[in-house]
Structure formats: C-alpha cells, structure tokens
Amino acid sequence: MIIKNKIRWTLPKGKNASELDRKIMAIQEKGHLVPTRSLIKTKAQIEGIRESGKINTGVLDFVAEHIKAGITTADIDKMVYAYTTDHDAIPAPLNYEGFPKSVCTSINEEVCHGIPGTDIVLEEGDIVNVDVSTIYKGYYSDASRMFIIGKTSPEKEKLVRVAKECLDLGAAAAHPFGFVGDIAEAITTHAHQNGYQVVRDFCGHGVGLEFHEEPEVCHYGKAGTGMLLVPGMVFTIEPMINMGTWEIFIDEETGWTAVTEDELPSAQWEHTFLMTDNGLEILTH
Fold first, then answer.
1. Which residues pair with 258 in a beta bridge?
2. CB 174 within 8 A of CB 229
3. SS3 sequence, 132-168?
4. Which of 4, 20, 31, 171 is the most exposed place for a label (fewest CB within 10 A)?
C-alpha cells in the first residue's frame, strides 16, 4: 500500500533519531504505510498482553476438554464465561457493539461471529470454530480454534487442516520490517493451491490495548503491500478459508453471523502474535 504524503512516524520532541527511527522514516519516505509510534508496545504492555493470552489459551483448552456432540453452543458460552471470570478476566465479545454472548461459535458454513444458542446442538461431523477474546487488567488477547465433532468427512477434515497450515505459513512469512502483504500472499498461495478461497470481508487486526487496533491484517493480497511490520507490534492473524467461493453474507436473523454465499464449509484459526527482532512470538494458542 502506497500512502502519498502521509506522515505517521515522527520523532519525539527534543530527541535525536534512533536507528529504528531512521529505518522507519526511510521506508515512510518511499511512500509505504508505516505504524504510528503508539502501535509499538512497551515491555510492560507486552507483559500484560502476554498474561491475558495465557488466560485466553486456558479458555480454549477448557473448551477442548468438554466440547462434544450433544452439547449446545450455549453450553460453550457458559464454559467461556465461567472460566474467564474465574480467572479475574472479562470476555471481550460480551456486549461489544451489541454482541450478546461471551464467545463466537461458527459451525460448518458459518464463517465467523456465530452467536451461541440453546437450540444449536453440536452434531457428529460438524466442524466448529470457537473464537475467544479476553480482557485481563485492561489488556486484550484473541484466538480461535477449529474443533471436529466426532468423525467428519475427509473433505471437511482437509479444510480444517489446510486452514491451520494457512495460519502457520502466514506467520512464518512475517518478518521485522516486512509488510502485512507478505502474510497475505503466503496464505492466499497455500489456499489456492488446495483449491480453496480466502474470505476478503474480514481480516486480522492489531490488539492489546484495545480489542481492535491497527493494522488491518488482510489475508488476501500481495507481498510488499500493507503496513510495515515493526518489532513491538501486536496483532492477530486469522485466515478464514472457504471450500467454495470467498463471498459471504450476513444472516439477517442474527445480524452478526457470516455465512458462505454458496453454503459450503469454512474454517478458521487465529493467534495473537508479537513481532520481535527475530520474527513472530505466539502469545495465544
């Protein structure tokens, strides 16, 4: 992404330019989108986000122990709320922009933002995304996992596996002073090689001090585009991979749940990552 005459990185008043400042400003002068200084987390902030991530991971581990055919997605919501609050944390989705539950549960052709309900029963063969976000002492973390209920079809099983591979390859492509588009190209390439499409309507995002921050981490695109990745940035990668078309629609009944346009299955995995001098560190699992 080329941003003409857009100055985002400036020197603190009264301070000389550091090596980091000079490097970022040189890239900015070439017209690339760079982060603002506020997106670079301090050591204390990173530790806070890391602690939030530990609870977030614990929530998903707890769900993994109990998810099975016959339970409802409302049961999952109760698990998430109970575990989170028992650890002195807050489920970030609850009441966020009117979202009514503590977790998103998206089944089969549902792409994301599925609302748990007492009438939604998990069945043998379902694939389910459980998306958990946690606030702990003011710090946010965000992750999701796919769960296969019992035994499913080889086609769904492959979709779930490839979606995880897309996340892993996207993370491996992210390097300090690379670009968000490097992540996108790695994900797009692997999805297309397996005959799948990447959802374009939703993306990953910065996280940590707020639920959603810059940058937008698009999963569909070309290397060398998007925001510059700088050590200290914290963001999610969360590719949504569809068996059929990438196009989606929002269910009118809920106003939240995104569904594949052709109603073929979708799968998603998500982690929160910290960019370090040596590449990405996973803060959630």
1. 112, 250
2. yes
3. EEEEECCEEEEEEEEEECCCCCHHHHHHHHHHHHHHH
4. 4
Give every residue of the chain whose pLDDT is below 70, as ranges.
Answer: 1-5
Residue for token pair 């550091």 = 18
Contact 208, 43 (CB under 8 A): no
Note if the pTM is more than 0.85. Answer: yes
- Round to whole Å and give the CA distance between 240 and 236: 13
Where do runs of H (alpha helix) occur along the chain?
19-29, 43-66, 73-86, 154-172, 180-193
Q: How far is CA 205 from CA 143, 200, 210, 258, in A?
A: 12, 14, 10, 18
Quick: pLDDT tens for 138-195: 999 999 999 999 999 999 999 999 999 999 999 999 999 999 999 999 999 999 999 9
Contacts of 222 (CB under 8 A, 6+ apart): 181, 184, 185
CA–CA separation, 259 and 7 (whole Å): 38
Query: Quick one: DSSP state of residue 72?
Result: B
